[in-house]
C-alpha cells in the first residue's frame, strides 16, 4: 500500500473495497490505516469484516474487542463480536456479548455501521 495516502484516504479506500467484496485490498488499506492510527475504532471494526476462516475469526474477534475497548458504546461492534463467538462455537460468550449489544442498541437508533454495512454479519 502506498505510504502517500492519508489516514482518511486509506479508510475510504478500505470501505470501498469492503463494499465491492475485495477483501484482500480492504485488509491492506485498513492495516495501513491502523498503522497510522491504532486508536481509531472504525478501523478496527473494518478489519473485523474479514471472511470467517479460523485465523480470520480470531483476528476479527481481536479487532472487534479492540474497537469495543476504544469506544464501548458501539453496539454494532458488540453484535458482530457476538456473531464471531457464535461462529466459533462459544455460545455462552456470544450470549453475554449479544445481551450487552441489545442494551447498547436500545440507547441508539443507528442501524448501520459507519462502514455502511449491516450491523451484524
Helix and strand composition category: mainly alpha
Taking the sheet with the most strands, its summary is: none
* CATH fold label of the largest domain: Serine Threonine Protein Phosphatase 5, Tetratricopeptide repeat
Helix proportion range = 55-70%
CATH superfamily of the largest domain: Tetratricopeptide repeat domain
- The whole-number mean of residue pLDDT values reads 77
Shape: globular
Distance between the termini: 27 Å
User: In terms of quaternary structure, what is this?
Assistant: single chain
| Reported CATH architecture of the largest domain | Alpha Horseshoe
What would you say this structure looks like, in words?
- The structure is a single chain.
- The protein has six helices and no strands.
- By secondary structure, the protein is an all-alpha fold.
- The protein has two domains: 1-37, no CATH class; 48-112, Serine Threonine Protein Phosphatase 5, Tetratricopeptide repeat, CATH 1.25.40.
- It is globular and about 45 Å long.
- The mean pLDDT is 77.
Brief rundown of the structure:
The chain has about 120 residues and is mostly helical.
List keywords for this structure.
121 residues, mainly alpha, 2 domains, Serine Threonine Protein Phosphatase 5, Tetratricopeptide repeat, 6 helices
Amino acid at each position: 500500500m502506498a505510504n502517500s495516502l492519508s489516514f482518511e484516504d486509506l479508510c475510504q479506500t478500505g470501505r470501498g473495497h469492503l463494499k465491492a467484496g475485495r477483501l484482500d485490498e480492504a485488509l491492506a488499506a485498513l492495516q495501513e490505516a491502523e498503522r497510522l492510527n491504532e486508536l481509531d475504532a472504525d478501523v478496527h471494526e473494518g478489519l473485523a469484516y474479514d471472511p470467517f476462516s479460523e485465523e480470520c475469526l480470531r483476528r476479527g474477534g481481536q479487532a472487534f474487542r479492540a474497537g469495543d475497548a476504544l469506544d464501548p458504546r458501539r453496539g454494532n461492534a458488540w453484535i458482530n463480536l457476538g456473531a464471531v463467538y457464535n461462529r466459533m462455537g462459544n455460545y455462552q460468550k456470544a450470549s453475554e456479548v449479544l445481551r450487552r449489544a441489545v442494551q447498547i442498541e436500545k440507547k441508539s437508533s443507528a442501524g448501520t455501521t459507519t462502514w455502511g454495512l449491516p450491523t451484524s454479519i
